[in-house]
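dude i think i finally got it to work??
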Amino acid sequence: MVLTPDPRVVRGLLARYAELRIAGTRGDAERRALDDVVYTLCVLTATTTIGDALERADALLASAPAATAAEAPPPDDVTLVA
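look at this
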């Protein structure tokens, strides 16, 4: 049995990863936040590098059914812990 991550969670993590990469890591807090997102993406996609995680996440989203208007977005108050 293979568990497939919720596409909403994957999209949220990809958005957070992009946001942190664009903003740059100006300090320890930002660097830790980026590290947490990278770690979580790797765990969620069963990979060991961010490149592989991004590739797997893209494939998961490509194969996921289209989101419907009735689906709620992922919560914004999720705390990522390494």
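The helical segments are 7-23, 28-45, 50-63.
im so relieved honestly
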